[in-house]
Structures are given as C-alpha cells and as structure tokens.
C-alpha cells in the first residue's frame, strides 16, 4: 500500500493546500503537457527538481518520498524496456546516449507521478468533488467519483483483515507455484467483492433515506471562490507553457552526452 | 500456554498499539480481554497466532517463539474467530466453508467428513449444510465462522467480539457453548467490551487501556471496581451499579451476579418468599 499512500490526501494546513483545486489542476496539467513535450534528459530533470520546493512547502515530503520509492518498481521496468528497445531499434546510437534516452523516459514517468501526487496529496476529495461540480459536471458523476476515491483506503484495510482471517484458517499465501497462489486468492477476493457490493447497496439506501436527488438544484455548504493567488498560479502556468513551447521550438537543447563529451 | 513478554507493537502507520504488555495464559484457562475501542485488545490477540509479530519483546505459544513459525503452523494450535464473519465466508455451501481450513491443514477425507458433521452438529447448523453462507442471517453467519474454526479442534480458541450482533438468547447460548468448550479443556480467550456478557461468564479478566494492561484478576474483583472500570472507559455492570447506588442502605459494592443480588435484597429487606 506504500505507493497509494503517496496519493492519499493529507489534511494539513499549507499554502499549497489552500490553493483552489481548479487552479492547482491547471498547474498540474501544464506540468503534464510540458513533460510530454520534451524527451531530453536535461529539461525533464529541471522539471523534476522544480517541483521539490512545492512539496516542501506543502509539508508532504514523507508521503512523496514513499510514492517515489513505491513507483521505483515501474520506473525500473520503464528504464529496462527503453534500453532494450533503443538497443535493438536504433542500432547506430552509442551506449551512453541509449542510457541517457532511457533515463529521460524514466524521469518523465516520475515527473508525471510527482505532479499528480502533489495534486492528490493536497486536495481533499470533497474539494475535488466541489470543483468538478462548479465547472458544471452533473452531481451524480462528482459524487460517484469522490466516493470511489474515498473507498480505496477502506477497501485496502478490509483486504488486510480478510487476508488475516484466512491466514488464521491455515491459508498459505507465500511460496508454492504460481497457479496455486492465484487459486489461493479466491478466498480473499470473494469476501472483498461481496462486502464492497453490500456496502455500496447500504450506502445507496442510506443516501436515499436522506433525500438524495430530492431537488434538481443542490446547494453546497462551501463555495469555491478563485482568489488572486489562484489567478496568479494560472498565469504562472500559462507563462511556463509558453516558455517551454518557445524552448521546444527554437532552442537546441544539448544532451548530457554532449555536455560531458562522452564518446560512444 | 501463551507467554507474552514485554511486548511493544507499532503499526506501519506509526500508531503505537501495545506499550510493554506482559502476561501469561496457562492451558485450560478462560480469559476475557476487555477495554475500550483502540485499547489494543485485538492487536494483542493477533500476536497469539502470529498474525502480528512484536516490534519489541516476544510471544511464546507452548514455548515456541511466534517470530520463528508461520501463521499456518500456529493456527493449527490457535484458532482465531474474527469479529466480522463476512471477512472470511466465501464458499458456495456452509459445508465447504467449514472444510476449508481442514483441507488447508491436510486432513484426510474421512476425518474431514467427520469433523464437518461434528462442527455442524455442535453449532446447530446441520440443516444449513448445503445452504450458501451468504443466505444466512447475521447470527447464523457468525456461527458458521465459529464452526469453521472449531472444526480442526484447536487447543486454544480466540474469539474477537463474539457477542456483537447477537440477541439475548443467542448470547446465552454462546455463553453456554464457551463454558462447555472451556470445561472440555480448551483455553478460551475472548476479546470484548460487553461487560454484562463477561460478568455472566466470570472468567479471568484482563483490562486494557492505551496499549497497556491496567488490571488482571478474577472477574468479580476487576469488574466491580468503579475506579478501574472508569479508568478504562467502560461502565459497571447494571446490577453492580444498582447496588452501588444503594450502598448507603448497607448493600455491598462488589456484586455482579443477579441471583446473588436478589438474595441480598431479600436478606436486607426481610421480605419473605412465598
């Protein structure tokens, strides 16, 4: 679960937490687009490091580190796959540049994970639902979305209890061959699914008893209001996007291999 | 025998659930571990079958250190019935559910059949043999869960919140059943905050609060001590409370048995029975 902990909202107070989710989303999206623009190592590394101050300001360093550690498995796979495919399909490249390109792809993946992590760590599901609602998405969809997010940790906890209960009845989950291990997960998956369905039915009944969908126009307790700092962030995002577009079109970005003058 | 030696346990998320717990449960004892939600009761008993391993200190079950054996090995000796039966029921029929653990432990076919029959019978479930466990009521599901553990006849039986969700009659039947198991020589450990249920069972009571043991003794001395009970955020048994309020009329404060209280009232008031 260590990886998903890095995407779970932490209720702490920080300037990043207070930013309007819509502005924050635009910022994250900008980062996403810029990371997809570039495939060279140097700009991607700059992107990666430029996020770190935000993480420190948001006081979520520990969770973020855990996420990076959790995603290192996928990062390794991406790196290896890239090295293999670059080696076979661009036969003329030197080893140094192959490694550089593969590293760039890996860093790109981490940057994408990182930016989403900042968003989810600092935006409560309620705020997220509220902002979806206020950009005009029907309430039913917003509710389904936030509920799904909220149920993930509950399901994870429940899965652990079920695993414990079945292990207490002599179920072995380690060792043995692959097929047997898959079959051993049946006693865990069935209670998990049955309980999830039962819980959602109960939730539906409880919601309906509390007049869910009684009126077309729902009012909300909190209203999101864009403030000056939120507009500032959107402006910064736009400038970043323009600047990187410019760099992408007109500046020839050197590779690490060229800078270090490694000959392959 | 279960020996817990100065055990500390911290969950991965940093919550310190046990802070230096030591206790010894001998063979054939009947123990109730009580305390408020979050006191560390379930965390403690999960150490008894190795589901959790101590962060510091050690737990010995029949002189075997739980850190060195698998849960499956310990489970053969220590049966653990979880609080919510829905966390373990998954089979198509009650019969399959009960035989699940027996198959895991590698019993032969005939023994499995005998044990299933025995467990169905003892918990009054024989008529549900071919029924899906998901079709049963809450109390019945709880009984299936219990049967599925009893079936392999573990020496030590741990019941997490056995009385939750049971009506008065079922509770009484459960009490009889637990006492019967205990008389047959099984070590029984129940985890509960149902003080009335414990008062009726009269086991040894271990009271926990904030990850520590605050009292350990016979039911009467622990459960009728207003200070101890208040300290662990529980409430006194009703009958104790009644007599405690009549203390100024000369009633004793350490009564928790309804019949004993009745006799005392007759004795004090001089009312004669017809």
Plain-language structure description:
- The complex is a heterodimer of chains A (264) and B (274).
- By secondary structure, chain A is mostly helical.
- Chain A has helices spanning 2-5, 15-18, 21-37, 41-57, 61-89, 95-122, 125-134, 139-167, 178-184, 186-209, 228-250, 256-260.
- The longest helix of chain A is centred in the first third of the chain and has 29 residues, at 61-89.
- Chain A is flat.
- The relative contact order of chain A is 0.15.
- With 274 residues, chain B is an alpha/beta fold.
- Chain B has a domain at 237-274.
- In chain B, 37% of the residues lie in helices and 22% in strands.
- Chain B has helices at residues 41-45, 71-75, 94-104, 109-122, 138-150, 168-183, 195-201, 219-223, 226-231, 238-245, 258-269; strands at residues 2-10, 16-25, 30-35, 56-61, 64-65, 78-81, 156-160, 187-192, 204-209, 212-218.
- In chain B, the strands form two sheets. In chain B, strands 6-7-8-3-9-10 form a six-stranded mixed beta sheet. Chain B has a four-stranded antiparallel beta sheet with strand order 2-1-4-5, with no helix packed on it.
- In chain B, strand 4 and strand 5 form a beta hairpin.
- In chain B, helix 4 (109-122) crosses helix 5.
- Chain B is globular and about 65 Å long.
- The A-B interface holds A 158, 161-162, 164-172, 186-187, 190-191, 194-195, 198 and B 46, 49, 51, 70-72, 75-76, 79-80, 82, 84, 86-90, 100-101, 104-105, 134, 148-149, 152.
Overall mean pLDDT of chain A: 85
Compute the number of helices of chain A. Answer: 12
How helical, in percent, are the residues of chain A?
Answer: over 70%
- Determine the oligomeric state from the structure: heterodimer
Query: What's the count of strands of chain B?
Result: 10
Indicate the structural class of chain A. mainly alpha
Q: What is the topology, as strand order, of the major beta sheet of chain B?
A: 6-7-8-3-9-10
């Amino acid at each position: 679960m260590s990886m998903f902990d890095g995407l779970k909202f932490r209720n702490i107070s920080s300037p990043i937490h207070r930013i309007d989710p819509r502005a924050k989303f635009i910022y994250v999206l900008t980062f996403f687009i810029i990371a997809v623009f570039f495939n060279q190592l140097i700009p991607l590394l700059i992107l990666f490091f430029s996020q770190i101050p935000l993480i420190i300001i948001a006081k979520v360093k520990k969770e973020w580190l855990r996420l990076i550690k959790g995603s290192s498995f996928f990062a390794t796979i991406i790196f290896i796959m890239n090295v293999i495919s670059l080696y076979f399909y661009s036969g003329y490249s030197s080893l140094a540049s192959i490694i550089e390109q593969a590293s760039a792809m890996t860093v790109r993946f981490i940057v994408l994970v990182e930016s989403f992590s900042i968003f989810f760590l600092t935006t409560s599901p309620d705020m997220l639902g509220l902002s979806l609602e206020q950009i005009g998405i029907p309430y039913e969809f917003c509710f389904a979305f936030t509920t799904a997010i909220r149920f993930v940790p509950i399901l994870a906890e429940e899965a652990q209890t079920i695993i414990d209960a079945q292990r207490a009845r002599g179920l072995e989950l380690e060792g043995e061959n692959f097929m047997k291990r898959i079959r051993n997960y049946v006693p865990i998956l069935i209670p998990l699914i049955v309980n999830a369905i039962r819980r959602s039915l109960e939730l539906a009944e409880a919601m309906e008893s509390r007049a869910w969908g009684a009126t077309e126009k729902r009012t909300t307790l909190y209203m999101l209001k864009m403030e000056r700092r939120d507009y500032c962030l959107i402006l910064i995002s736009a400038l970043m996007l323009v600047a990187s577009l410019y760099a992408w079109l007109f500046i020839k970005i050197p590779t690490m291999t060229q800078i270090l003058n490694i000959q392959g | 025998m279960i020996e817990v030696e100065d055990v500390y346990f911290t969950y991965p998320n940093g919550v310190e659930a046990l802070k230096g717990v030591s206790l010894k449960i001998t063979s054939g004892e009947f123990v109730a571990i009580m305390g408020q939600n979050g006191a560390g009761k379930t965390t403690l008993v999960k150490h008894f079958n190795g589901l959790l391993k101590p962060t510091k200190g050690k737990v010995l079950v029949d002189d075997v250190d739980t850190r060195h054996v698998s849960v499956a090995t310990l489970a053969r000796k220590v049966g653990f019935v979880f609080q919510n039966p829905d966390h373990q029921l998954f089979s198509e029929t009650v019969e399959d559910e009960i035989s699940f653990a027996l198959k895991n432990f590698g019993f032969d076919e005939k023994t499995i059949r005998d044990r299933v029959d025995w467990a169905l019978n003892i918990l009054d479930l024989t008529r549900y043999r071919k029924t899906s466990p998901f079709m049963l009521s809450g109390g019945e599901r709880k009984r299936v869960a219990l049967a599925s553990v009893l079936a392999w006849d573990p020496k030590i039986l741990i019941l997490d919140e056995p009385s939750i969700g049971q009506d008065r009659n079922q509770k009484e039947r459960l009490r009889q059943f637990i006492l019967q198991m205990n008389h047959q020589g099984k070590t029984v450990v129940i985890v509960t905050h149902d003080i009335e249920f414990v008062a009726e069972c009269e086991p040894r009571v271990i009271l926990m609060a904030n990850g520590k043991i605050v009292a350990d003794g016979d039911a009467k001395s622990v459960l009728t001590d207003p200070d101890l009970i208040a300290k662990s955020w529980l409430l006194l048994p009703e009958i104790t409370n009644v007599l405690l309020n009549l203390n100024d009329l000369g009633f004793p404060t350490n009564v928790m048995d309804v019949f004993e209280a009745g006799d005392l009232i007759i004795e004090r008031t001089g009312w004669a029975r017809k």
